[in-house]
């Protein structure tokens, strides 16, 4: 540095040039060091594989390019061998309910490979109860610590989970990708897939730089479809982006028959049942709407029995007088037990009632941060698929229409005309191929034996 200072004094322009070259050299060294260090655990896996094989010579093919869609069909079948299944780590944000986790599980249960979860949601127990391994990390708003301290703890926890699971791909479902996830995935060379539900509120769309430039935080953008269509902002064509049909947990052929579903829920044969599931998770209280719905149904027709289904996140074990209470998750398998439904306007509930052709009254939650449930309900009402209201004083009239046989028959017919195949299958297939193309492959080529070489 002293020499550079002397040169700069004697020849200013030469000195500036040498200083620039010096700092550029430092940046190159740091970049190369980060790249090599970021692949350290993959290199360790390679060394261990050589040791286990007894020193067999291995040929390392060129790393496959990570792509989505039809281009992934050209992955050689030679890679699809026993013992070569990739590992996929699913990550859900801390939503108000179980929506993010439910979408991820709908995809994960259709993946023919190793899957595990990392979640910020308090509903994480629902995942473990269904047989998956899950790591729970409390969201920032639940911890009374600084954001920087929380972020450093997240970095340590997520990196540990990533390495323990030996993930070949990470799939995130939420409205904001945590920067720690992006940094760690790119540090280790693991593709980050963003499953991004559409229909954002205008203000949320305007504020989210990630929505405008998703390539800065993810490698692939997969968009589950919505029967209500896209939001007002749409999605420009991008090479790393793909759209799918609406995603639901259970396929139609997995649902129980009406009789079996009622037996499973302990609902006696005879009356008609109306499902009430207003969700809302932890965003706001729905007790008043539930009470008005139950009272209205009982007044309109004594032949209808209201059945409240509570969220896994709800601590309430009480139901309004005249209603039955059930706890059941996931709910889709039992929809045939009901003749109609009153549900919230969230993504999962709406896709399910349309897919299962269950006549429904949608009560959109107006207090969500990102999900435009009011727009979703309005579009489906315009299409004649559902009924909807946000005012408690309108519930009686809407429910009177819903219990009408003619109205429900017409709604079922229109739903049957628009329902699509479950998009979870196609998403699972593409995620599998993304993980597969990311995995490090070293096919063993045995050394010639002495007998054959002689």
UniProtKB/TrEMBL annotation:
Q: Where is the Glycosyl transferase family 28 C-terminal domain?
A: 331-420
Question: Short name of one Pfam family for this protein?
Answer: Glyco_tran_28_C
Quick check: keyword Transmembrane helix in the entry? yes
InterPro entries assigned: Glyco_trans_28_C
The residue ranges crossing the membrane are 13-38
UniProt KW keywords: Membrane, Transferase, Transmembrane, Transmembrane helix
- Which SUPFAM superfamilies does this chain map to? UDP-Glycosyltransferase/glycogen phosphorylase
Does this UniProt record's set of keywords contain Membrane?
Answer: yes
Name recorded for this polypeptide: Glycosyl transferase family 28 C-terminal domain-containing protein
Q: Which organism is it from?
A: Corynebacterium marambiense
């Amino acid at each position: 540095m002293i020499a550079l200072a002397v040169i700069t004094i004697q020849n200013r322009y030469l000195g500036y040039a040498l200083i620039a070259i010096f700092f550029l050299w430092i940046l190159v060294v740091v970049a190369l060091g980060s790249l090599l260090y970021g692949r350290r655990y993959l290199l360790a896996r390679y060394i261990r594989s050589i040791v286990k094989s007894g020193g067999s010579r291995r040929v390392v093919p060129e790393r496959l390019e990570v792509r989505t869609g039809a281009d992934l069909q050209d992955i050689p079948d030679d890679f699809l061998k026993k013992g070569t299944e990739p590992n996929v780590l699913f990550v859900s944000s801390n939503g108000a309910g179980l929506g993010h986790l439910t979408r991820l599980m709908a995809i994960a249960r259709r993946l023919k490979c190793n899957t595990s979860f990392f979640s910020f949601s308090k509903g994480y127990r629902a995942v473990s109860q269904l047989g998956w391994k899950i790591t729970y990390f409390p969201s920032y708003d639940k911890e009374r610590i600084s954001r920087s301290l929380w972020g450093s703890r997240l970095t340590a926890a997520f990196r540990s989970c990533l390495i323990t699971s030996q993930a070949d791909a990470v799939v995130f479902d939420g409205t904001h990708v945590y920067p720690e996830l992006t940094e760690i995935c790119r540090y280790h060379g693991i593709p980050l897939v963003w499953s991004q539900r559409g229909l954002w509120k205008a203000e949320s769309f305007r504020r989210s730089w990630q929505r405008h430039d998703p390539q800065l935080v993810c490698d692939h953008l997969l968009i589950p479809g919505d029967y209500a269509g896209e939001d007002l902002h749409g999605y420009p064509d991008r090479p790393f982006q793909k759209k799918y049909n609406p995603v639901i947990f259970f396929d139609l052929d997995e649902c129980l028959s009406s009789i079996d579903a009622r037996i499973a829920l302990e609902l006696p044969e005879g009356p008609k049942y109306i499902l009430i599931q207003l969700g809302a998770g932890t965003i706001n209280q729905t007790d008043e709407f539930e009470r008005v719905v139950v009272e209205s149904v009982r007044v309109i027709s004594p032949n209808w029995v209201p059945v409240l289904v509570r969220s896994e996140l709800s601590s309430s074990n009480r139901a309004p007088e005249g209603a039955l209470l059930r706890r059941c998750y996931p709910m889709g398998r039992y929809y045939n037990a009901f003749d109609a439904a009153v549900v919230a306007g969230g993504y999962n509930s709406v896709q399910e009632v349309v897919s299962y052709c269950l006549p429904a009254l949608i009560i959109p939650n107006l207090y969500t941060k990102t999900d435009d449930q009011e727009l979703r309900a309005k579009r489906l009402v315009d299409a004649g698929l559902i009924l909807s209201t946000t005012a408690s004083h309108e519930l009686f009239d809407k429910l009177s229409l819903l219990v009408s046989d003619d109205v429900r028959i017409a709604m079922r017919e229109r739903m049957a005309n628009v329902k699509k195949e479950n998009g979870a299958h196609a998403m699972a297939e593409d995620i599998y191929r993304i993980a597969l193309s990311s995995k490090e492959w070293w096919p063993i080529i045995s050394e010639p034996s002495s007998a054959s070489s002689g």
